[in-house]
Specification:
Layout lengths: L7 H13 L10 H15 L15 H4 L5
Length: 69
């Protein structure tokens, strides 16, 4: 568990993210849930954690972006 202070602009964006996902049957997403979703999505997109059901495992984004010689 960690504690993080975010800038007002980021907090506004986080609250907007939560507001868009306030749908039944789940109800309002908590800050903890929202931050975990956002971080997980970014880490998967950048290749730091594997995509769900990806048989190839993790490929860091910088490696995936390399142009073959």
């Amino acid at each position: 568990m960690i504690s993080v202070t975010v800038e007002d602009e980021l907090l506004d964006g986080l609250e907007g993210f939560i507001a868009e996902r306030n749908e039944p049957p789940r109800g309002k997403m908590s800050y903890d849930d929202a931050v975990n979703v956002i971080i997980r999505d970014w880490l998967m997109a950048q290749g730091y954690i594997a995509l769900p059901d990806d048989p190839n495992g993790v490929t860091p984004a910088l490696d995936a972006a390399l142009v073959p010689k």
